[in-house]
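Quarterly update, task 2.4: adenosine-5'-diphosphate-bound model.
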Amino acid sequence: MRLGLTGGIASGKSTVSAMLAARGAKIVDADQVAREVVLPGEPALESIVSVFGQAVLNADGTMNRSELGRLVFGDRERLDKLESILHPAIRVRMWKQMDAYLEEDPDRLVVADIPLLYETGQASLYDGVMVVYIPRALQMERLMVRNALSADQAKQRIDLQMDIEEKKRLADFIIDNSGTLEDTKGQIAQFWRDQGLP
Ligand code: ADP
């Protein structure tokens, strides 16, 4: 089974993906893959250089994130161009990893951890989507603590994403992470049994 895993910022995706991994699920992490596709020698990095120029490279051939960020900041057209290079590269690589895991063992759970899964319209690609849910007030609280942010800064980041209540409505499986970690672990155990996972 290919499961999409998402939620809001600081709702507990990493926490839940670690719990799933502990039970034997294989995790493919969109943020990690996003870093891999721009390593030196990767076609996506070559495309980025051909569009944005050599200035987006550091002396050692790695991508100069701050320079690239500066070039696309506030420029919708450039940002679209960058995303049109990155997004397909990320998806192809994630899909290859998932296929490889399922080829090894078709019965296992393969989880794609994608923070903006709904925002980027990827829900239908998965057999099901699990949303890690906490109410917005608690989301604010956990985000402020984890990232040492003010209430305004936390609110700004949360407002960049689809409302967590909307994600909860769209979910195939809801994990409510507003209780203790033990409580969340219990919900994962229940999910595992319901799906008849090995
Ligand atoms: P995400 O990956 O969705 O951004 P994390 O898994 O990093 O979220 O969780 C956000 C923060 O909340 C972290 O500091 C984490 O330790 C904490 N946290 C997660 N789940 C719980 C929980 N059930 N109870 C208390 N704190 C939690």
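Highlight for this quarter: Residues 1-25+109-198 form a domain with the Rossmann fold fold (CATH 3.40.50.300).
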